[in-house]
Design goal:
By secondary structure, the protein is mostly helical. It has a domain of 27 residues. Helices cover 37% and strands 0% of the residues. The longest helix has 24 residues. The chain is elongated.
């Protein structure tokens, strides 16, 4: 068990600096599964206040003009 623990620590000591270096060297790529975000398909949205498990206080909300 002592050998296993020593090998684990040696792997951490060697692996963490290598992982940090790879973070700087590798090109930045986004998530592969997500398509690139484009604002061409965006739509206007109206934001409405929602109250869950509470009480809506109308005098705090400013009316939209």
């Amino acid at each position: 068990m002592d050998v296993l623990f020593k090998c684990f620590l040696a792997g951490l000591i060697a692996g963490i600096p290598i992982w940090i270096l790879l973070q700087y060297i590798r090109p930045r790529v986004g998530f592969i599964g997500l398509p690139a975000f484009g604002s061409g398909g965006s739509t206007a949205a109206e934001i409405q206040p929602v109250v869950l498990n509470g009480r809506f206080v109308a005098h705090i909300v400013k009316p939209q003009s």
